[in-house]
Design brief:
- With about 425 residues, this protein is mainly alpha-helical.
- It is built from 16 helices and 4 strands.
- It has a 4-stranded mixed β-sheet.
- A hairpin with a 6-residue loop joins strand 3 and strand 4.
- The model has no long low-confidence stretch (mean pLDDT about 90).
């Protein structure tokens, strides 16, 4: 054990202790408010729905604690227990070209990780989600989705990983800059391709056939100077009772997608308000800003890996005495998120700030009262807690707590009157 092994273990221990402390706070806070609906929601959410949301939140948080322990055990198995070193040695002995064997190593590591997580995924789907009335998937559909995801990981991931390993092998000291550029092109291409080529592999999309709603949405888009080539309804009810809507894609591939469950839950005016919120993200360039933020983090991470590649203490401290380039990349991808925990609260704060801005945009583009009613229905029907622990929420939540978000929108309602 070298000094970095000790640092690594301290970071792992500190990270899981922090997460568990926040998780325990969340459970205590939600339980403490389980039997009283917040005043601002008392006329819209009944006590039974509020209690269901509390129980759902506590259950998910408790399972999340177990998942943290499992993820920690898997990480230690890959690193200090020698799992990645053994897999690296096996691929090296296969007699394949270096870049090809390295691609095999990374893909097999991802697929093994997916198999290890499969029981937990099944538990969430057929245990928690079914218990609270949200799951509509079947074991057959779950298996088909899993196989499709694995196939996509190979089809999409293999060329990217091959290109990165080729650059690590051939591009010299500046390989990480070229890799970053490849990653940027890949990310933009994925955003462009997802709505038309990837999403339809998992869901059925049909054109919205409600003329009145289509005209209402079209008028909203026209007022905001946004073009979308079609408004689609997605069969989200095939797998879940949760509702959602989003704007995705680039250029001619841009499309508005509404879950069929959302059409069942909300009135046309409320759907317009929700879509106005999604347009707010687009008009305020939130996707672009988050992409830039992610690109900066990726640049810094790759620069760090470029520096660490020649540092034997780093890899030896993680259970790799003589790693291949692929194993170096693999262990960095496994370990880096544990050290990046300090970025998580800032990323959550930035996301919540964007949500407030999108709400403000929607309050001006549509009716703020309609957005409030839509949000309350979504919180209620999706069993989202109205009383999260403030510290837990600040660290984890990408959306503001319901009372703060509704209070923010209520200001726009008062301006209208």
């Amino acid at each position: 054990m070298n000094l970095f092994t000790l640092v690594f273990l301290i970071v792992l221990g500190g990270g899981i202790a922090l997460h568990w402390w926040l998780d325990i706070r969340q459970q205590r806070h939600v339980r403490a408010h389980r039997d009283a609906v917040p005043d601002s929601f008392r006329d819209r959410v009944d006590l039974d729905a509020h209690r269901k949301a509390a129980d759902y939140t506590v259950t998910k948080t408790r399972v999340g604690m177990l998942e943290d322990v499992f993820a920690l055990a898997v990480l230690l198995a890959w690193t200090l227990a020698g799992g990645l070193a053994a897999l690296d040695a096996a691929w090296r002995q296969a007699g394949l070209p270096t870049v090809l064997s390295g691609t095999g190593l990374l893909l097999s590591m991802l697929l093994i990780g997916g198999l290890l997580e499969l029981p937990l995924d099944a538990w969430r789907t057929f245990g928690i989600e079914r218990r609270f009335g949200f799951n509509r998937s079947t074991p057959r559909l779950f298996l088909i989705d899993t196989l499709k995801q694995a196939a996509l990981a190979v089809v999409i991931g293999a060329p990217l990983l091959y290109a990165v390993l080729w650059l690590m092998d051939r591009a010299g000291a500046a390989w990480w800059i070229d890799t970053w550029l490849v990653w940027l092109v890949f990310s933009v291409t994925l955003v462009w391709a997802y709505p038309a080529f990837i999403a339809p592999l998992f869901n059925r999309f049909t054109a919205l056939d409600d003329p009145a709603l289509k005209a209402r949405i079209g008028a909203l888009l026209e007022r905001q100077g946004v073009t979308a080539h079609e408004i689609w309804v997605m069969d989200g009810s095939r797998r879940s009772g949760h509702g959602n809507a989003y704007l995705a894609g680039l250029g001619k591939r841009r499309r508005i997608v509404i879950f069929d469950t959302l059409l069942e839950q909300l009135t046309p005016e409320e759907i317009e308000a929700v879509l106005a919120h999604e347009l707010g993200h687009y008009k305020r360039r939130h996707v672009l800003k988050q992409t830039v933020f992610g690109a900066v983090l990726a640049f810094l991470a790759l620069a760090l890996l470029g520096l660490l590649r020649g540092q034997q203490w780093f890899f030896a401290g993680l259970g790799l005495s003589d790693p291949s380039a692929a194993a170096q990349l693999a262990v960095f991808l496994l370990v880096a998120p544990r050290f990046a925990i300090i970025v998580q609260p800032f990323a959550a704060w930035l996301s919540r700030r964007f949500e407030y801005q999108a709400d403000a945009f929607a309050a001006r583009a549509a009716k703020p009262r309609a957005l409030i009613e839509a949000l309350v229905k979504l919180y209620r029907d999706n069993a989202a807690t109205l009383t999260p622990d403030p510290l837990y929420s600040a660290f984890h939540d990408s959306h503001p707590p319901a009372p703060l978000r509704v209070a923010h929108l209520q200001g726009y309602v008062e301006q209208e009157t």
